[in-house]
Amino acid sequence: MTQWEQARTETVSPDITEPTNALPARYFTDPEIFELEKEKIFGQYWVYAGHANTIADQGRYFTRTVGDRELVVRRGEDGDVRAFENFSARTGEPVVDETPMTDAGRVDATELEDAEEVRVDSIGPLLFVNLSDDPMALAEQAGVMKERLEALPLGEYEHGCRIASEVECNWKVFAGNYSECDHCQANHQDWIKGIELNDSELEVNDYHWVLHYTHDAEVEDELRIHDAREAQFHYLWPNFTINMYGTADGYGTYIIDPIDTGRFRLIADYYFRDGDLSEEEREFVRTSRQLQEEDFELVERQWAGLKTGALAQAQLGPNEHTVHRLHQLAQEAYDA
Asked: What is the pTM of this model?
């Protein structure tokens, strides 16, 4: 038996100063937990589906899998976006083939007449779906994030490129890594030279947290989407991020999409004023990709350690408030 199977573990403590301030290891390694997450997390909360600008025309659609359920997200003839289960009750087969947001297709409304409709809501051009019969409002889940993002001209930006990566790691390990920057000094040494971590700010809300950083040099007005010299990294539970880099006229989104207990897919999308990227924007994406690869190496090592069973329950550092909140939300979902 591994050590965590032999040892006693406790639920995540509400106080970050307690020894049991993180999830027990089995919540990252047990396949039964992943099955539970499909119902308790991805079947209950609002989950990011995609960007409205990619289906700007009537009849355009893309598909998105949430848990085990494949959905069709379509722009209707009335201009509204609706989502449906990609399953026809009449034929017993999928209505459309798998179609990514980056290569949207077209489907007639009559083909979806026998498909069950799913709830859709939005934050600006960002589309979210919910599979629950009785969900909380998206405005409640997003909190202040909704008002802040809708005050920005996100809809004026076009999709520039997508990078999708399959990573050998439980999705929550990467989510925790994204949610703090204690590792940045050691893991992102080239990037860290341009920001002032001493002036960083950590903001934790009910289902949403933000890491704010300032940059050493002032950035010209036309090269940023928000306040001067600031980068903002927003995380919305359970698995969506929006990244305001502060050094480029654009933004990015991440979907931390679980495949199974030990794998997830990171879907990184980048948005700029023009969908045709300049060389400077391509270099920006390459830098972002370098940071992703550095993080993949780190979280895969963490995942390897979790699988050994060397620890029954991890312990967070005193500054990891965002990771603590992530673990609390997961624990609350499992216990619901």
From this structure: 0.91
